[in-house]
Amino acid sequence: MPKLAVLTEFNTSVELQEFPLPEVSPGGALVDVALGGICGTDVHLRTGHLSVPLPIAMGHEGVGRIRTLGEGLTTDVEGEPLAVGDRVVWANNIPCGSCYECMVLKEPTLCKSRKIYGINRKATDAPHLQGGWAETISLEAGTTIIKLPDSVSFEEVITLGCAGPTAIHGVVENLNIEPGSIVAVQGAGPVGLASAMYAKAMGASQVIMLGGPTSRIEVALEIGAADAGIDMDTYPTAKERLAAFHEIAGHGADVVIECAGVPAAVAESIDLARPNAQVLILGQYTDHGPTPINPHLITKKQLKMFGSWGFAPSHYVKYVKSLPHLVKNHDLASILSVYHLEDVNEALADVASGKVTKGALRP
Ligand SMILES: [Zn+2]
Ligand SMILES: [Zn+2]
Known about the structure:
Distance between the termini: 13 Å
CATH class of the largest domain: Alpha Beta
Bound molecules: zinc ion
Mean pLDDT: 97
Radius of gyration: 20 Å
Number of domains: 2
């Protein structure tokens, strides 16, 4: 019987439980998981910061090989023929398609009744195997399944498992990064790294990353995601970081991308921006409460400030299509630390403490 990592209570360890292999549903698929990614959201899930039903079938990032195809499922979302053994990734969420946000706003990321594998699927409900931290996952009809290009590995896909599509939505679709732009990226986690790589792909001449710990900034420089780094250990105060930034960037950043997730970073975003700049607040996924900012500067500098929430299946498709280009320029797999599924709690602890930049579980 396949194993699945389950969170039965908040603030406890994740348990491996066995469930019977389900029948494949029409239009769905069973996929043998090769890697299940660990995301910052998993750390927050465990602490009960998000309102989700227990027990959670864990793992909202995954890649694997088709084990069984359900009746009627013959191609991936782009019409590529699917066969048993094919390497695939799936978008973790299925928007309802019929609510106000889906139908009128046409913003499926804002859908309030999305099904999300690994986040709001209960392990006690059939077909149980509804998360990617498992030996096998059962995908239902309506899941966006994408066949992987031959030139990208499972490791490369999972390294930016959530961060890549999040950056496609926030950075690629919402920002206008002109060739020659100076881009400041706050935060050196996976979302910061992905945002920096896409900013470069869009033509930024200089990406300056601010964040910590120092080892993460070094990784960003090594893989060519950033051209310069300002780390929190050398420059512990906002004032010191701003001074160091202006030494490199002169009049300031044309575009600021906040991926730090710390409320106080937003005040710094405003300071880093040159007049008339674009400022994207992408990292505040968890509600850590209010923070003091000086709104006068937003008006005076004529800043264009906006937010972007997660990603929809379409962003996952674009992410996978962009990967052959990204992996040519950046050694994505070098960022990934792989753990055995049995060591799920050690892996979660290492991601929570920042010991590893990106972790994944191999069944
Ligand atoms: Zn995630
Ligand atoms: Zn909806």
